[in-house]
Write a structure and sequence with these properties.
The structure holds 2 protein chains of 2 kinds.
Chain A lengths: L7 E6 L4 E6 L1 H7 L2 H12 L13 E4 L14 E7 L7 E7 L3 H7 L4 E5 L6 E6 L2 E6 L8 H11 L5 E4 L2 H4 L7 E3 L3 E3 L4 H7 L2 E7 L4 E2 L3 H15 L31 E6 L8 E6 L3 H4 L8 E3 L2 E3 L11 H11 L5 H14 L4 E2 L2 E2 L5 H12 L5 H4 L2 H12 L4 H10 L21 H11 L15 H7 L1 H16 L13 H16 L9 E3 L5 H6 L4 E3 L2 H10 L5 H23 L3 H5 L2 H5 L11 H15 L10 H6 L9
Parallel strand pairs in A: 1-6, 7-12
Antiparallel strand pairs in A: 1-2, 3-4, 3-6, 4-5, 7-8, 9-12, 10-11, 14-15, 16-17, 18-19, 20-21
Chain B lengths: L14 E9 L9 H11 L1 E2 L7 E5 L4 E5 L8 H5 L5 E4 L2 E4 L9 H5 L10 E2 L6 E2 L12 H5 L5 E9 L2
Antiparallel strand pairs in B: 1-9, 3-4, 5-6, 7-8
Classes of the chains: A alpha+beta, B alpha+beta.
């Protein structure tokens, strides 16, 4: 068995129940793992213009060489497929989750699963070490996620790790998630609906094998070092208050005090009958179970009302739990609530059969059930905000502002509400400029799965601009090649955006958690420690050290970044060649960044955005007219795909 | 490798030292780092099934139960071993792999060995294995060192001689 990898990727056709395996090592040194290997498989197998719900679409579930090992935060799984959420026409993208499923899959002997075709009747897949069964799912089809999973565990093995879709995935809600309780999900790209379209309810895995490590002693030492470097969580963690001692973790091998997880005991239900004994929330889940608000913003004839969750005991926890159980992406709150609140503010009290009361938890409780089961107006909402707006425009007289607002709340390929300086994160110049370039050129909203790297440094800057400038002077030069990277200007930002993108590809391919890596700065526990330390530079080679001691494939961080560039370009080629992506599509995010940043009121204009994109394309070696990678670039990356251009 | 004494040799003092890992289930978060580090040290591979420490994880209920050898001073496992392959050395109960025939009587005799989480059969070596407190490592046991939640502590207890 190769080191770090299980060595095989399962290929399952649900149409004729044929099962094959691919040799992982064929891809390992060029495409690392996870998102990288998935891109290669997608390039080789996805037909041109394939729809998300077409049986020919692939659902690619991947792990990386570090999944299931001691490497801190490595217990992650990567999902890649054509996403039904992308507007107006689905394209290929990715979504990752933590938990224990990926590790178990590797212990069973597989680095990934590629699923194609559509089962004739609902099924689930049961992988017990090397034994693979495709089993009729009559008894669990229609069940909510938690019940389906406990039924499967009782039937199969209590120690099995399971991914599962809820009613929302079965009914092809475009933002349905793939869930793995208690609180892990691949939510953002609507892959739950892809699973539903394949009549696949769940995948259960039990593995009793292990992952051989190339140099156990050095790997152990590297892991211990990596743990020391990352245990303080995100770069700006020390600015935030500590959480109670027992904040939960969401992933195997996680040692990070990310201060995101919360746990609730014995919550009395408000809307259902079942008492909630234990409930955990992480990250976006906290938006439900906390009385916000996330302040709104205004500009360019749009008003985004503030977003508020609910106190845990007032229904916040119950609503969050319901979302998980129905298999809906938790971001549904952040997209629909402000839109409906604005409707009410503009005098629209009713849409179809639905009276609007979007600040009320019971109203949301009923709405979520309607969406997941596509009942009444829920059938329209299930099509996501952009498509819903299109449908409503045909049915009723919708004010222009609401149409623009839906474009604002839901980009063509993602939710903008993270680290872009408008909706909620304070992201002044120059940080949102990097964000804008990343949003323009990725296949989905980039910042939600890429917290650390550059964008989060904004919080350190805002806390103390003067000492930030001083401390980061040499760091900026070392990492991004120039101090100008951090100047509040439009110069030298494309370099930073490209660096961020490559580091995120690396995290999604190894995989590691973006709350912990890359370690741009040393781990600081307190603000005092941060203020008195002169040399703050962390260590950006940890990932390479973990990779090489684990797999025995000796790649330096530069070589790994080159592999990430290869992966990013291949993903771009998938979008360009199979889904007609070009510069015009990239430019669509421009208007959002023409709204003033809510921290410093800076903004883009169309001309500057064009110039920024020119710089970005030139640096990438892409054609500045079309935004397509050039033949020379692809050749230099050893990508044998240029014949299609 | 024959004739292992079931008991540690009597020293001149009137006490024996017993070393053990004391788990605190209420601090555990179920990350599994202890299992992965243990199997990495003992097997060169990350494999929870071969870890000498086991954590039963119920993330849904947020309940975790840690199983690891208590290094009893009068171990039932050693009493049960027909080969006398289990000895106590420096306060640690050790299975000598060369002497183990894989009969499994030790695993049956241990009163704490629920579902073979503490003493279990090693499928490739054909012997029974259990926690040896990382006797080959100079530092303290790796699981104790690596646990980020401080759910594991190494304790030394003085045991009065019989």
């Amino acid at each position: 068995m190769p080191y770090g990898y299980a060595g095989k990727i399962l290929e399952i056709s649900l149409e004729n129940e044929k099962i094959k395996t691919l040799d992982t090592m064929k891809y390992a040194s060029s495409f690392i793992g996870g998102r990288g290997i998935a891109a290669k498989i997608a390039w080789d197998e996805l037909p041109k213009h394939v729809d998300a719900f077409d049986p020919e679409n692939r659902l690619i579930i991947m792990t990386g060489p570090l999944t299931g090992t001691l490497a801190p935060t490595s217990g992650r799984t990567i999902f890649c497929s054509v996403s039904p959420r992308v507007y107006p026409r689905p394209w290929y993208t990715h979504s990752t989750m933590g938990g224990f499923f990926g590790s178990e899959l590797k212990y069973a002997g597989f680095d990934g699963i590629v699923i194609h075709g559509c089962a004739e009747r609902p099924v689930y897949i049961w992988i017990k070490d090397e034994e693979i069964d495709i089993v009729p799912a009559k008894d669990i089809w229609g069940l909510k996620v938690r019940s389906a999973i406990s039924t499967l565990k009782r039937k199969l093995d209590d120690l099995a790790q399971i991914i599962c879709i809820g009613p929302a995935g079965e009914k092809l809600v475009r933002y349905a998630s793939i869930c793995s309780p208690p609180e892990n999900a691949s939510g953002h790209s609507g892959f739950g609906a892809v699973m539903g379209s394949k009549n696949l309810k769940a995948i259960a895995v039990r593995g009793t094998g292990g992952i051989d490590i190339f140099d156990p002693k050095r790997f152990l030492d590297t892991c211990k070092y990596a743990m020391r470097m990352c245990h303080t969580g995100m770069v700006d963690q020390f600015l935030r208050s500590a959480t109670p001692n027992r904040s939960p973790i969401c992933s195997q091998s996680c040692n990070v005090d990310c201060r995101v997880g919360r746990i609730f005991f014995n919550i009395e239900p408000k809307f259902s009958s079942e008492k909630i004994k234990v409930h955990q929330t992480f990250c976006i889940g906290n938006c439900w179970a906390r009385h916000g608000p996330y302040s709104g913003y205004e500009g360019a004839n749009i008003k985004v009302p503030e977003i508020t969750g609910w106190n845990p005991e007032d229904g916040g926890v119950e609503l969050h739990r319901l979302c998980d159980d129905l298999g809906l992406d938790l971001w549904v709150l952040l997209v629909f609530q402000p839109w409906f609140v604005r409707c009410v503010e503009l005098g629209i009290k009713k849409i179809g059969d639905l009276y609007l009361n979007p600040r009320d938890p019971l109203w949301f409780y009923n709405l979520l059930n309607k969406i997941a089961n596509r009942e009444g107006i829920g059938d329209v909402l299930a099509e996501d905000l952009r498509r819903m707006t299109d449908i409503l425009r045909r049915r009723m007289n919708l004010p222009n502002e609401l149409i623009k607002l839906s474009e604002e709340l839901e980009f063509a390929y993602g939710f903008p509400a993270h680290r872009e300086g408008r909706i909620w994160d304070p992201e002044p110049m120059p940080f949102w400029v990097v964000s804008a370039l990343m949003y323009a050129t990725e296949s989905r909203d980039p910042a939600i799965c890429a917290h650390t790297s550059f964008l989060h440094l904004a919080n350190l800057y805002l806390d103390d601009p003067e000492s930030f400038r001083l401390k980061f002077k040499s760091v900026a030069k070392k990492i991004w090649g120039s101090e100008r990277a951090l100047y509040p200007s439009f110069d030298h930002k494309a370099e930073v955006a490209i660096w961020c993108q490559h580091r995120h590809v690396l995290l999604d391919s190894l995989p590691l958690c973006d709350f912990a890596f890359p370690r741009v700065i040393k781990p600081f526990k307190t603000k005092e420690e941060w203020l008195k330390t002169k040399d703050i530079y962390g260590d950006l080679e940890i990932e390479a050290k973990l990779f090489s001691t684990c797999t025995g494939i000796d790649l330096s961080i530069d070589e790994l970044e080159k592999a990430c560039e290869r992966i990013f370009n291949l993903e771009r080629m998938i979008l360009v060649f199979k889904f007609d992506r070009d510069r015009n599509v990239d430019e669509q995010v421009g208007p959002h960044f023409e709204l003033p940043c809510k921290t410093d009121r800076t903004c883009l204009n169309a001309q500057i955005f064009k110039r920024l994109l020119d710089e970005y394309y030139i640096l990438r070696g892409w054609d500045i007219k079309t935004g397509h990678p050039t033949k020379e670039k692809l050749k230099s990356l050893d990508l044998n795909v240029s014949d299609v251009l | 490798m024959q004739g292992f004494s079931r008991r540690q040799k009597r020293s001149s003092s009137s006490h024996l030292i017993r070393k053990l890992i004391v788990p605190n289930n209420s601090l555990c978060k179920g990350c599994g780092l202890c299992e992965l580090a243990c199997s990495l040290i003992h097997e060169g591979s990350c494999n929870p099934s071969l870890s000498r420490i086991h954590v039963l994880k119920n993330h849904e209920q947020y309940k975790f139960q840690i199983f690891v050898c208590l290094q009893c001073s009068n171990p039932h496992c050693a009493e049960a071993c027909p080969q006398e392959a289990i000895k106590i050395e420096d306060g640690v109960v050790l299975i000598v792999e060369e002497a183990c025939t894989g009969c499994g009587l030790c695993a049956e005799a241990c009163p704490f060995n629920l579902n073979y989480h503490i003493i279990f059969h090693h499928p490739t070596k054909g012997v029974y294995v259990k926690c040896d407190l990382c006797s080959s490592r100079e530092e303290k046991p790796i699981c104790v060192a690596i646990c980020p939640s401080k759910a594991l502590t190494l304790k030394e207890i003085k045991v009065v001689k019989e």
